[in-house]
Amino acid sequence: MNIAAVTWTAFKLPFRTPLRTAKGLLEYREGLLIRIGTDAGLEGLGEASLHPLSSCADGLHGLTNTLAALAPGLIGTKAETWPQGPRVLPPPLAFGIETALLDVLAQHRGTPIAGLLGGPKRNAVEVNALIASESANGAALEAKAAKEAGFGCIKLKVGAASSLQEEKERVAAVREAIGPGVKIRLDANGAWGVQQAILAIRALEGCGIELVEQPVSADDLEGLERVQESVQTVIAADEAIADVQSAARVIEMGAASVLVLKPMILGGIKKALDVTSLAQDAGLKAYVTTTLDSSVGIAAALQLACMLPEGGPACGLATGELLGSDIVVRPSEISAGKMALLGLPGLGVKLDEHALFRHTLFSGHVGP
Length: 368
Ligand SMILES: [Mg+2]
Description:
It contains twelve helices and 14 strands. It is α/β, with parallel strands linked by helices. The protein folds into two domains: 126 residues, Enolase-like, domain 1, CATH 3.30.390.10; 217 residues, Enolase-like C-terminal domain (TIM Barrel), CATH 3.20.20.120. Strands 5-6-7-8-9-10-11 form a seven-stranded parallel β-sheet. A four-stranded antiparallel β-sheet has the order 3-2-1-14, sandwiched between helices. Strand 2 and strand 3 form a beta hairpin. The protein is globular.
């Protein structure tokens, strides 16, 4: 099966309500939808979106230019042979192209992508609810609603509060609202210094914290290790897992007990599976999260998540609801705190062409 056409559409989706993180306020999600057509008449979908908190200088136009330069060389090549050669692509673009190709190959075989890559280990994945509200009361109400909807894990962004007291009041209000049975996960997105992280986590531990994602800066692995040694709470490395090499370093140093896998950051589902193997060999758990992608990126992350063994931490895939619009017809549904693989061939999503058109910034095409 040969590649016959490559189409890209840059889109911009609004967040339902602007999302406050330790690195700033998110109002929009920009991304690149990639469509790869084949001579067998199949079309695969992939998403290449820069992490909204990344400081990547390239931006959406940089990704597009790289794809536009690459696309003519893809025409006529076998869909099965990607990736070939020493091609170094921005990881989100590698992820987007790989997803679209896996989508056509899996459709061709009549299996979900997970089936193509060795088979899913589970057909549904526990996911966490992400609380957007900044106030203690608002967060408590949102968390209570999430618990009632069946979520077993609630995630709060931390590190943006004006004081530790304020942080503590918000986390304590959430614990009070949901009772002891539901997990609380915190994510500092690297906002704390090492001492600050140790103090904050010790102060919050009484609220019963499942784990804290990336308490300190991504490049401070020694700091991450010091935090992990100084607190009772499990520490997860997220932004520190930038590629297979950095994941290997985190594992070797024992800098974190859990790894967060973002296939968009790691450069594709296959690379993320490589990191999963490293983690498993070291006896560490891992879970998959999105970079607040559209439902195309989320669907790819779900395929990966289904290839992880049962019993790991909840995955951060319930992020589609944060966006005010989407570009697929029927996003993956969450029921009782779980997202299920529907067993459809390929990626398992269908584009909503009208919605995509409404949110298009610009587009391009190579092929007939
Ligand atoms: Mg995180």
